[in-house]
Amino acid sequence: TCLTEALVDHLNVGVAQAYMNQRKLDHEVKTLQVQAAQFAKQTGQWIGMVENFNQALKEIGDVENWARSIELDMRTIATALEYVYKGQLQSASS
Question: What are the record's GO terms for cellular component (predicted)?
């Protein structure tokens, strides 16, 4: 009887230790799942911010191109007006 109890106690200690380890692992898995979900959410937010920033950069580029186009048009108009004005001065002095 003592031998049997000693063997069972020895086995129970191992089983109890395995059970405690399994509980700790289950807890760690749950914690890891929560943290992974939070990280995925945060990563999604970062991706959204980067996409918004990229879109803003594109819009700035569009405005810059628009401004260059307007500037070129204004220079063309100024040159044409200057040409007409000089032509009028020459006609008046002749």
Answer: BLOC-1 complex
